[in-house]
Amino acid sequence: MSERGQTARARPSIRVVLVDDQALFRAGIRMLVDSQPDLEVVGEASDGAEGIDVVRRARPDIVLMDIRMPVLDGLAATAELLTDADPPRVVMLTTFDLDEAAARAIRGGASGFLLKDADPEFLLAAIRTVHAGSAVIAASATRDLFAHFADAAPRPVPSRFASLTEREREIFALAAQGLSNAEIAAREFLSEATVKTHISRILMKLGLRDRVQLVVFAFEHGLT
What is the reported pTM? Predict the structure, then answer.
């Protein structure tokens, strides 16, 4: 086998499970995902209960989870999966720009949500982005999502917030405004690697999965 062939075969795949009650939609997403050399669909399910079983057997990196399904909806299935010791990252799929269900999913630990009619290239990029540790939200709904949390009465700030150093609080505030690592680095005269380290420590100390949850945390507790 040529060196090129060995490299292609050795390339690790991002393992994806599809959970949606529309078989035609699943078939289209499977064809799209499987067309990529670094992505692989390793399982499908037509409802949340079946999805939990498939995910626990297949051990995917990413789950594309419909919100509204029979037997068990996507919110309940996601909440169940996130109790596992090493849960996958879950991206919710919805027909609507933003509703209470999508907001609850983000609050509950989902790594974002996408519209079902999203551009195929955006969906592929979203899978890779979430796998890399970031989060994705349908672009048209970002402002509405954060406004949803901002409109609610602030909750008491958890005691764990006090564990952040002064520098980490500064980085937290900038990240809560939606600034990227590069933008924070430029503003604070830091390297992007240093900012990334700070963000990782902040997420760990606050028990958050990603930057979207960081922003939600800030809005919910009046820290913006």
Answer: 0.71
